[in-house]
Structures are given as C-alpha cells and as structure tokens.
C-alpha cells in the first residue's frame, strides 16, 4: 500500500490546522528547533491511502521459457495443477520468476493430461519440476501428487490462472513464524482490475460460502489485517508440508474439485491449528479460466460445486450448526472466534525502530492478542506511514486511517458498541478522544495509558532551567493529566515510582503499573570482543538532546583522559544541529539506524546521562535486554529496579559519570556482573510474562482467559 495525498499544500494545511494547539505547547516548552522537527515528521507522512494496482504480465506471445531454478535448498514447494490454458500457466510461472522471494522455493507443476501441448512446452523451463499424470486426476488428485514430491517444509498450492505480486510468498511464510498456531495461511485474491475478489471466506450454517470483501476496494482497513477465517481459497494457500501429509492431503471425497479447501481448513482446526488470511500476500486471480463461472450449469467441472457442497455439509453438520445463517452481519461473521475487542489510540503511528514507547506499544498489542483481544489501532491524526502500517497489519492489528476513517469520533459513533476496552495512550490523544469513547462505548472500560507522567518530566525541566514559564506549563499539564485519570476507569503508569507519586497527588485514582515490555536476548559477545560506548534515543524527545550535549561537552573531555581510545556512537532519529556539531574523531552521529542490534552486540557500555525526564527509559531496557551494561543518572534509572554496582552504574555529575564508564571499560569482572544482573532485572520486571500478569491484574482477567 502507498500513501498519497490530493496535493502537498492541502495536506500540509490539514496537518498544521489539526496540530496547531499542540504546536503552541511544543513551541513554548521545547523551542523552535523541536517544533520544526516534529512538523517535518508529520508533513512527511500522508494519511490518505490507496492500494498499489496489481502488476500484470500481458497475456500474449512470445512465451519464452523462464528460469525457475531455486537459489538454494527450497524452504517452500509451490504446487501448480494444470489442465490446458498454457498461456495463463506461462504467465503464472513468469510472475513467480519475476517477483521472486527472500525464501528459496521450488515450483512443481502437475500437468493433468493437457491436450494443448502444455507438457511438451514446459520441459524447456529450467528448474521447473514437471510431473505429468498418466490419467486425469482433477485438481484434488493433482495437488496431492505434487505434494508427495515436495522437498520444502511448506507447501503453497497455486492456481495456474494467477499472477503473484511482490512480497506474496514471504508474507505467507512470515505468518507461520509470527503465529505458531498457524495451520493454513491464505492470500488476498484480487481481480486483474484491482478490485478485491476475496479477503478470506465466510461459511454459513447451511454450508454455503461468501467471499468476504468481494468486488470492494481492497485497501479498506477491515480487509487489510491478518485474521483467523473459516477457510481460504485453494487458489493460493500455504500449509506446512508435514501437517498436510499427516492429515492425508486434500480428501478425494471432494474430487475432482470444490470444497476440498474448506474441508482441509476444518480438519486443520480439528487438529488444533488456526486458518489465517494474510492480506499482505497479494495474488491476482483470473477467476473461472479453468472451471468456468456459471454455477448453474449441469455440465463440466463446475457441477461438482453443488455436489461437493452437499458432501461438505453432511460431513461437518455438527460444526456448521454453530455458524450463523446466511444474511447475518458479515463484519461479525468474518471473525466469529473473536471474544474481546480493544481500541488503542496513540498520538502517533507506532514506529518501534524510532522510539521506545512504540516498542512497548507493539508488545502490548501482542499480549492483548494472547489474552483474546482483537486489537484495533489508530494514530490520533489517522496518519498511515509505511512500512509501519503493514508491520501492524501483518501481525493481525486492524489499523484505522484516512480516507476510510476521517475522524476517530465518527468511527466510535458507528462501532463503539463493539469494544470491550479502549486504551488512550498519552495525554493529548486521551484528551481528544476520551469524551467520544465515554459516549459511544457503553460496554468498554476506558484506560488512560500515561506512557510517562508528562507533568513530572516538564516540572523537572523547569527545575533544571529555573524557568517560570516552563513551570506554569508543567502545572497546566499536571491539571490535565489528573483530570484525565479521574475521568478514565483506570490509569496505567510504567513504574512504581510514578504510582507512588500519584498516590500522593491523586489518591482517588485507580492506578496500575504496566511497564515497558521487551524480549530478553542476552549477550551476543563477551567483554573482550567489544569496544566503544553507545547512546541511543530519538531526538524528538527533548531530554535526549540535553543528555547528548551533556555527554559530549562535559563527560567526553574527562573520559578522553581516562580512556584515550574510547569511541562514542550516537543513534537517534532527527538529531538537531547542535547535536550534529558534536561529531568528531571519537564521536559518531549516526542518526536513525533501522537495525540497532549490531551496536548492542559490539559496544562495551551503554550510557544514559539524562538530566531530566520521567517514566521508564527504553534505551536502558534495550541495552540490558542485550546484556549490555549501562551507566546512567538517577533520573534515567528511576523506577527500573536497578541496583548500583549490581545491575547498573549510577552517576549524576560529569566527573563521576566519566569515571564510571572508565571503571566498566577496564574491569571485565564488573562488566560481567552488570551484564548478568541487567538480564535478570529484565526477565523479572520487563519481560512478556511480567507484562501479561500486570495486564491480567489491571483488567481483572483470570488465568486461562
């Protein structure tokens, strides 16, 4: 999907008008440079979205052979049953070769007694594994025969009247890795003109089916996230090879074709697995080329659609009895297994490669999904930058965006009764949305997720600067946040320290700690294989700019005396001019780095010299999760269960901070003690198990629910 706007000027004006009140606040408290950076970020993304049109190969001669030789041992076996229609088959193969994939795949083509020279022509295609049936086996028999020959760990069944689109195969296989319960994963099917053919299929109690989203615009939010479905079309369907063989393949009771895919989906569910639709796998399907489209005809392959429907209905009558009647609400029917629904609204799109609050948020989504919630997310301004939207949709998060949702309050007016829980993240998003949520979500518990206490951070900045104007801003922010807490049903904070502050400031507010959430990776390299110092933090967050200037101007000159060969790497999006000016022979300003793990593995120390702030610091969490010891100020380490000398080194002034880095650099025993201690803290307080337990307690969910 691509973000587009009507005109750059119209979009810019729209952003500025909606952002104006917040812009004034940022200007007063954080200065012109920070305001310009934030406006630049917002103007760089556009909230209007349309789907990329399908990329099609012209169905015309010449049909020169294409090379389908796998680049490595195949992980995936693509099985294509064929009967005549050589032109479509050639372009199906050409699209596979042209698009490619990150995973190695082989192509197994089963020629089911074609009479148009298909088999004779395909023998000239390098790398193609061609199987020729001695007698006509039909779709079911041909698929099963191709699966018997497969070498890959995954099977993908693909009709010959399809053309795959970029990323189609990797999106399917990613789903098996993202969702360990996945049994079948099906693609989004499109017509050649770009309209949607199927976004997963819905079955009804009488055994009839409906292709959800048929003929609609495919880029609407409701069609664009991974979800569990009744079944997916066999036109583009993936399954683990071992599972397919264990289940006996497609059942010959449905030969030659029709309902074999629905029956397989029901057998996969009976085996304890889930059938998923993955919209990021896009496949164009020239529907009806092989079997025709007239369901009423009494002749040809299509007549088996009615015959096999009765076989399917009889076999699965007991299960189908729990399904709805034809004509029921399709939006409910499309995800009949969903037990709970949550809407999450945050100030911005989730960008986990750019700021730590987004890491917490995306991991919160995963835990909520594990607790049975369907997660719907919206940025307050309904922005939709890629690849972040697709990254959420890939793991099953429904994302709301323009032009299909123009205001969150409009969405709530139409769908508010669907939600059991509404989480409003950060004060500005909560202030803009809480009233509408209270009005339109009568069943929902409303949570104000502070992320950090903004008023505490701004008050500390005022103290550091001795600025009365900033102090007044902090007091207004305090009044706003406390008011939101009292109007919400529940407030989340990220540390016991902030909970204790609220116990004094607002003892009437119900507060729960739901802290940062991280996967704990452990140390990739030992002490003696590392060197250098790391600072990481987005510069849209003003405390990071202050910390880096303190580090470069006051700490580094002292450290150069103690550790002359030490080098500092500074990572963070949009570094301001004064930070860029700090670059030198031993200070590297790297800006935004999409993959930071190599730095966690290579550096000897991570530093967090914050002089003001609030909340729990993701930069420290990330470092500790990778076994990288941290030197931090007391403000930076606040609320993180860290002990000086055991899991962190604490220093507040420049000489003490420089000396702490030097100690860590020259003492391998201290380094190892801090590395091990930091990992223990992360596992105990910031891992997924701790966060899930905190959410269960906060939301009154019992174990097993």
From TrEMBL:
Residues 77-211 form the Glycosyltransferase 2-like domain. Signal peptide: none annotated. The keyword Transferase applies. SUPFAM superfamilies: Nucleotide-diphospho-sugar transferases (SSF53448), UDP-Glycosyltransferase/glycogen phosphorylase (SSF53756). InterPro entries: Glyco_trans_2-like, Nucleotide-diphossugar_trans. It comes from the Bacteria. Keywords: Transferase. GO terms for molecular function: transferase activity. This is GT2 family glycosyltransferase. It comes from Thiocapsa rosea.
């Amino acid at each position: 999907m691509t973000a587009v706007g009507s005109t750059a000027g119209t979009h810019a004006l729209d952003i500025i008008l909606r952002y104006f009140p917040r812009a004034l606040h940022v200007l007063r408290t954080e200065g012109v440079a920070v305001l310009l950076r934030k406006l630049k970020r917002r103007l760089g993304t556009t909230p209007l979205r349309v789907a990329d049109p399908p990329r099609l190969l012209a169905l015309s001669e010449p049909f020169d052979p294409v090379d389908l030789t796998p680049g490595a041992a195949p992980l995936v076996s693509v099985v294509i049953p064929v009967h005549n229609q050589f032109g479509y088959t050639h372009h199906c193969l050409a699209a596979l070769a042209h698009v490619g994939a990150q995973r190695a795949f082989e192509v197994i083509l089963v020629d089911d007694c074609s009479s148009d020279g298909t088999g004779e022509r395909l023998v000239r295609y390098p790398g193609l594994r061609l199987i020729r049936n001695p007698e006509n086996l039909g779709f079911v028999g041909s698929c099963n025969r191709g699966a018997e020959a497969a070498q890959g760990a995954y099977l993908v069944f693909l009709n010959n009247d399809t053309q795959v689109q970029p990323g189609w195969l990797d999106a399917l296989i990613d789903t098996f890795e993202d969702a360990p319960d996945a049994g079948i994963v099906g693609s989004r099917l499109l017509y050649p003109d770009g309209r949607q053919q199927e976004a997963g299929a819905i079955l009804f109690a009488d055994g009839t089916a409906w292709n959800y989203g048929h003929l609609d615009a495919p880029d609407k939010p409701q069609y664009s996230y991974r979800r569990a479905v009744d079944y997916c079309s066999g036109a583009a369907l993936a399954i683990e090879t071992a599972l397919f063989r264990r289940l006996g393949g497609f059942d010959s009771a449905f030969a030659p074709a029709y309902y074999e895919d629905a029956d397989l989906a029901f057998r996969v569910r009976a085996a304890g697995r889930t059938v998923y639709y993955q919209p990021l796998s896009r496949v164009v399907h020239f529907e009806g080329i092989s079997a025709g489209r007239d369901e009423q005809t009494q002749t040809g392959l299509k007549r088996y659609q009615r015959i096999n429907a009765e076989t399917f209905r009889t076999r699965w009558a007991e299960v189908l009895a729990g399904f709805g009647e034809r004509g029921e609400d399709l939006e409910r029917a499309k995800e009949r297994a969903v037990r709970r629904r949550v809407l999450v609204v945050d100030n911005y799109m989730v960008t986990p490669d750019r700021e730590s609050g987004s890491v917490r948020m995306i991991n919160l989504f995963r835990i909520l999904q594990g607790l049975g919630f369907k997660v719907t997310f919206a940025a307050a301004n309904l922005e939709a930058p890629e690849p972040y939207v697709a990254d959420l949709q890939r793991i099953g998060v429904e994302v709301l965006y323009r032009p299909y949702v123009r205001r969150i309050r409009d969405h709530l007016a139409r769908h508010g009764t669907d939600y059991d829980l509404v989480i409003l993240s950060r004060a500005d998003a909560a202030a803009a949305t809480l009233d509408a949520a209270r009005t339109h979500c009568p069943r929902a518990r409303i949570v104000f997720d502070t992320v950090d206490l903004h008023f505490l951070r701004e008050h500390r900045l005022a103290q550091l600067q001795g600025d009365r104007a900033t102090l007044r801003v902090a007091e207004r922010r305090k009044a706003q946040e406390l008011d939101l807490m009292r109007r919400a049903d529940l407030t989340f904070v990220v540390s016991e320290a902030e909970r204790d502050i609220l116990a004094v400031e607002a003892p009437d507010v119900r507060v729960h700690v739901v802290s940062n959430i991280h996967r704990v990776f452990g140390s990739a390299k030992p002490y003696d294989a590392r060197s250098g110092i790391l600072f990481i933090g987005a510069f849209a967050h003003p405390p990071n700019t202050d910390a880096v200037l303190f580090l470069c101007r006051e700490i580094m000159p002292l450290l150069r005396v103690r550790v002359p060969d030490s080098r500092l790497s500074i990572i963070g999006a949009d570094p301001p001019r004064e930070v860029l000016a700090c670059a030198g022979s031993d200070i590297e300003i790297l800006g935004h780095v999409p993959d930071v793990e190599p730095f966690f593995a290579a550096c000897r120390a991570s530093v967090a010299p914050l002089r003001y702030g609030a909340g729990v610091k993701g930069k420290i969490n990330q470092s500790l999760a990778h076994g990288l010891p941290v030197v931090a100020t007391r403000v930076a380490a606040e609320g993180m269960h860290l002990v000086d000398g055991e899991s962190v080194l604490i220093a507040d002034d420049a000489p003490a901070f420089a000396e702490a880095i030097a100690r860590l650099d020259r003492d391998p025993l201290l380094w190892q003690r801090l590395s091990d201690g930091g990992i223990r803290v992360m596992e105990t307080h910031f891992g997924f198990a701790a966060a899930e337990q905190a959410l269960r307690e906060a939301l009154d969910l019992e174990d097993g629910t």
